[in-house]
Amino acid sequence: MYLIFFGVGIGFIVLTLVIGRVMEAEVASISFLSPTLIALFLTVTGGLGLILTPRFYGTAGAGIVFAISAISGFLIASAINNFVIKPLHRLEGTNTFNRQEVIGQLVEITAKIPHGGGYGKIKYNAEGSIVTGPAKCEDEGEIKAGEQAEITRVEGKTYFVRKYEKR
């Protein structure tokens, strides 16, 4: 039985890694049904059961092994959920920002924006993160790499910039 738990737990972990977070998103509101936590519980319960079974003999020993294994699996899965998974989920939302809020910000041109409406690339700091993105010059002029520009508007993922003139 423990070998099956352990195998299913490892298989579940591999499956979750292969298909990404698709299953995770579907049950995100019920955290204890998370595929990651189920896999962790099964793996710990099965692994600990395999380790403890030879040390305890008889029917009374089997109950003790199962209780210790299941409780340990639950405690470890709960600890990982509370101290790793939940804090990481909270952090995911903190690095998001509204692109419209960067209008007026100075940026560095990292790839030349060619004359005539071509695309270049910009780099700027948003809430402590370095952000890069495609950019077009507002007046279809040329802005060389290394120069500064000012964001005038954002459409989709394209930043429209104007060459920065010191005033």
Overview of the molecule:
It is a single chain. The protein is α+β, with helices and mostly antiparallel strands and 167 residues long. It folds into 2 domains: 2-95, no CATH class; 99-163, Beta Barrel (OB fold (Dihydrolipoamide Acetyltransferase, E2P)), CATH 2.40.50.140. It has helices at 2-19, 22-26, 35-52, 58-92, and strands at 106-111, 119-126, 129-137, 148-155, 158-163. Helix 1 (2-19) runs antiparallel to helix 3 and helix 3 (35-52) packs antiparallel against helix 4 (58-92).
- The run of helices and strands is HHHHEEEEE
**Helix percentage range:** 40-55%
How large a portion of the residues is in β-strands, by DSSP E? Answer: 15-25%
Count the DSSP helices. 4
Q: Sheet bearing the most strands, described?
A: 5 strands, mixed, barrel
Descriptors:
OB fold (Dihydrolipoamide Acetyltransferase, E2P), 167 residues, 4 helices
Short description:
This protein has 167 residues and is of the alpha+beta class.
Helix-strand blueprint:
Blueprint: H1 2-19, H2 22-26, H3 35-52, H4 58-92, E1 106-111, E2 119-126, E3 129-137, E4 148-155, E5 158-163
Parallel strand pairs: 3-5
Antiparallel strand pairs: 1-2, 1-4, 2-3, 4-5
Helix pairs in contact: 1-3, 3-4
